[in-house]
């Protein structure tokens, strides 16, 4: 922890338990947890080591740099890099034994050149665009791309994958359309003799609502951390949130009625009030948009945020909390008492963003249940 006492507590036991729940949901498909973006703000190195101990067969990251950091920390689990190949990183990724995403002729040439220079084969997962319209080879061009790959023996196609745009929608029609397009692309590759070890398209929402999408591998992200894949979707039984963001009261001041609080004078006391100062602000990932809207927990009771959230500090009203004083711990969000969904709901966003917003200057403290005696 830093001297401010603002800390993100990460329960690795919850993450490991969530992973085991995901394995059950996957029904025999390999589970590839997504730990990109520093494990959605939870700390990728600690999370990866916990998952490796659980026997995860694969892990997914966004960048080759993220894969390098995992390897340097001792992670041996196979890694899939979602980001496209780059000349400066592809050789490193191949040496690290990572699978790289490819979906253009340029990607193929980069991988083949790097593999040839190393005297190795490059593992590739071909990404198919089935309706996300972000990245990937159009499903209509699968046959031609399969023909191109036949000219590059340096590339081993280990996987073919796509990504759902709308799997959390109660109307399953677009998800079914995407799955149908993906199956068409897979059939075209199979006709060209390319049958990968891993066909994968299911994210967290698809894993929950579309069991037909599980295929050979699934790629859950947000559920691993015990958070919801979309607003209004309750966590299934057995999943638990892993992150709790806490801080502490550093100062309490008595403020007369009619006095304003913080920048812009957006809040004024209506009575004599006890105002607590918290050492957390928007530079820590507690957004200014929560000013005068959010609450925190002090001694198990709700304390409203008053005035504008500052860069490094936030003020709360302690008037209704008897005995609250400097040094008291404050739950900012997380756990079951003040779920991340309450914050994401106030912000009009998703749980993913709230977890990822917690800045690097907030220490992550990872803890785990003690090992059981054998």
From TrEMBL:
Keyword set includes Cell inner membrane: no
CDD domains for this protein: PLPDE_III_AR
EC number annotated for this UniProt entry: 5.1.1.1
Keywords: Isomerase, Pyridoxal phosphate
Sites where the protein binds substrate: 134, 311
Cofactor(s) for this UniProt protein: pyridoxal 5'-phosphate
Xref: InterPro entries: Ala_racemase (IPR000821), Ala_racemase/Decarboxylase_C (IPR009006), Ala_racemase_C (IPR011079), Ala_racemase_N (IPR001608), Ala_racemase_pyridoxalP-BS (IPR020622), PLP-binding_barrel (IPR029066)
Catalytic activity from the UniProt record: L-alanine = D-alanine
One cellular component term from this protein's GO annotations in UniProt: cytosol
Biological pathway: Amino-acid biosynthesis; D-alanine biosynthesis; D-alanine from L-alanine: step 1/1
A Gene Ontology biological process term: D-alanine biosynthetic process
Superkingdom of this protein's organism: Bacteria
PROSITE patterns: ALANINE_RACEMASE (PS00395)
Gene3D superfamilies xref list: Alanine racemase, Lyase, Ornithine Decarboxylase, Chain A, domain 1
Residue numbers bearing the N6-(pyridoxal phosphate)lysine modification: 36
KW Transcription regulation (keyword) present: no
GO molecular function: alanine racemase activity; pyridoxal phosphate binding
EC top class named in words: isomerase
Active-site residues from the entry: 36, 263
Stretches assigned to the Alanine racemase C-terminal domain: 242-367
Function as written in the Swiss-Prot or TrEMBL entry: Catalyzes the interconversion of L-alanine and D-alanine. May also act on other amino acids.
Family per similarity comment: Belongs to the alanine racemase family.
NCBIfam families: alr
Protein name, per record: Alanine racemase
């Amino acid at each position: 922890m830093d001297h401010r006492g603002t800390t993100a507590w990460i329960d690795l036991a919850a993450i490991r338990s969530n992973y085991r729940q995901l394995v059950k949901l996957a029904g025999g498909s390999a589970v590839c947890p997504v730990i990109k973006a520093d494990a959605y703000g939870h700390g990728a190195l600690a999370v990866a080591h916990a998952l490796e101990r659980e026997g995860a067969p694969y892990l997914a990251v966004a960048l080759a740099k993220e894969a390098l950091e995992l390897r340097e920390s001792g992670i041996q689990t196979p890694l899939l890099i979602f980001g496209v190949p780059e000349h400066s990183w592809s050789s490193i990724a191949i040496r690290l034994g990572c699978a790289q995403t490819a979906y253009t002729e340029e990607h193929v040439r980069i991988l083949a050149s790097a593999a040839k220079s190393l005297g190795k084969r490059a593992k590739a997962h071909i990404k198919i665009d089935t309706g996300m319209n972000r990245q990937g080879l159009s499903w209509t061009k699968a046959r031609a791309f399969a023909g191109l790959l036949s000219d590059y023996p340096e590339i081993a196609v280990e996987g073919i994958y796509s990504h759902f745009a709308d799997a959390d929608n109660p109307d399953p029609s677009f998800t079914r359309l995407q799955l149908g397009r993906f199956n068409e692309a897979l059939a075209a590759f199979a006709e060209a003799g390319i049958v990968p070890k891993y066909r994968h398209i299911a994210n967290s929402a698809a894993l929950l609502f579309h069991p037909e999408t599980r295929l050979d591998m699934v790629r859950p992200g947000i559920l691993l951390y015990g958070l919801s894949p979309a607003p209004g979707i309750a966590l299934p039984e057995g999943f638990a949130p892993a992150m709790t963001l806490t801080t502490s009261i550093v100062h309490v001041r008595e403020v007369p009625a009619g006095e304003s609080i913080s920048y812009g004078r957006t809040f004024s006391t209506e009575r004599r009030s006890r105002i607590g100062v918290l050492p957390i602000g928007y530079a820590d990932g507690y957004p200014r948009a929560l000013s005068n809207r959010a609450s925190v927990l002090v001694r198990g009771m709700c304390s409203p945020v008053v005035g504008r959230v500052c860069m490094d500090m936030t003020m709360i009203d302690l008037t209704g909390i008897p005995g609250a004083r400097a040094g008291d711990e404050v739950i900012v969000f997380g756990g079951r008492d003040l779920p991340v969904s309450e914050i994401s709901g106030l912000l009009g966003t998703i749980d993913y963003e709230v977890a990822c917003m917690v800045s690097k200057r907030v220490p992550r403290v990872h803890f785990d249940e003690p090992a059981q005696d054998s």
